[in-house]
Amino acid sequence: MSRNEDENYDFFGDEQYDDVRRATRANGRSRGRRAVRPALKTSSPASRLFSRLAAVSGVLAVLVALASDVHEIAPDAVPAMTEVPGRYIALTAAVLIAVTVLMVITARATMPKYATHGGVGAGGIVALVAALLCLTVGVSVGVLFPEGLIHPSNDKAPVDDTSQMEQGIEQAAGACTGGWQGLDTGGVPGVTTVQMCAEPRVAFVSFESPAAAAVGAPPMRSGIVSLLNQYSTDERAQGDWQLLSGERWMVFGENEAMTALQQRWGGTLEAMSAADGDGSDAAATADTTAGTAANAVTDASAAE
C-alpha cells in the first residue's frame, strides 16, 4: 500500500484501519522485547549444591532418628548402643534435622532472581519430615517407657523338664542327699509340678504359662512369709532366704544357692523374711501350693 493510500484512509477517518495498525505495531514491539529478554534460569550451581547437602543431611537425620527409636523401644537390641544414653542419640538427630532445614533454606535463597522454587531441596524436605516423625516416636517412647518396651528374655530354666530343673538346682545348691519329693499341687490351676528337697533346703514350683505364674506368684510369696513367721523361733529357719522367680517357675532357698542359680538361669531375686508378714497370712494360704512347698521345706529344717 502506498503512502498516499495510507493518508487517504487517515483522511476519511477509517477508525477500524487505525485500530488494526496500532495492534500490529504493539505486537511488533512485544515480539522485539521477547527476543531481547534472556532465557530464565531455574537453578544455580549454589542452589544445586545446597539441595544435595540437604538431601544428605536429611538421610543421616532419618538414620539417627531410627536408631533413637530402636534404642528407646528395645534398649538391648544393639549391644554397641547399650551404653549410649538415649538423649545423646536424640540430640544428634535433632542437630541433623536443624542442619537439613538450614540447607533447604539456603538452597532456595541462592536461586536466581525471578526463578520459581518448585522442586528445590525436595529430597531434603521429604527426609526432614521422615526424620521428625521418627524422632517424635523415639522421644515419646523414651519419656513414657524409660525402661523400653522390648527386652530379651534371660530365662534359661528348663521348666518343661522336672529332672533337668532338679539337676540345675543341685548344680547351684548342692546335691539333694535325701532325694527330691513331689508335693501335692493343692488344686491350684496352672501349676504343673511342686518339688522339694530337705537337704539342702530348697523347693521349686513350675507353671503351665506366664499367666498362670502371675496368678500363682502372690500365694507363693504369702505362704513363704507365713511359714517363716510360724517357725521364726527356730534358728534353722532364720537363714537368709531368697525367692528366685522366672517366667514360669519359682525357686525358694538360701541366698547363696539362689544367687548362684540366678547366674545360670536368670530370673529375679527377692529377699524373704518373717518380718515381711504376719501369722494371719497362714490361714489364707494354707491350702495353696506355695504354702505346701514352703511348709515342707521348713518342717524338714525343724526336724533335723
How are the SSEs ordered, and which strands pair?
Layout: H1 3-11, H2 15-36, H3 45-73, H4 86-109, H5 122-144, H6 162-173, E1 181-182, E2 191-197, E3 202-207, H7 210-230, E4 241-245, E5 249-254, H8 255-265, E6 268-272, H9 280-285, H10 289-303
Antiparallel strand pairs: 1-2, 2-3, 3-5, 4-5, 4-6
Helix pairs in contact: 3-4, 3-5, 4-5, 6-8, 7-10
At a glance:
This protein is of the alpha+beta class.
Folded structure, characterized:
This protein has ten helices and six strands; from the N terminus they run ααααααβββαββαβαα. The chain is α+β, with helices and mostly antiparallel strands. It has a six-stranded antiparallel β-sheet with strand order 1-2-3-5-4-6, sandwiched between helices. Helix 4 (about 85-110) packs antiparallel against helix 5 and helix 6 packs across helix 8 (about 255-265). The longest helix is centred in the N-terminal third of the chain and has 29 residues, at about 45-75.
- List the uncertain runs: 35-40, 276-294, 300-304
Count all strands and give the number.
6
Class by helix and strand content? alpha+beta
Evaluate the radius of gyration: 41 Å
Largest sheet: 6 strands, antiparallel
H/E order of the elements? HHHHHHEEEHEEHEHH
Helix content estimate: 55-70%
- What separation lies between the terminal Cα atoms? 140 Å
The rough form would be described as rod-shaped
Number of helices: 10
Provide tags for this entry.
304 residues; 6-stranded antiparallel sheet; single chain; rod-shaped; alpha+beta; 10 helices; disordered C terminus
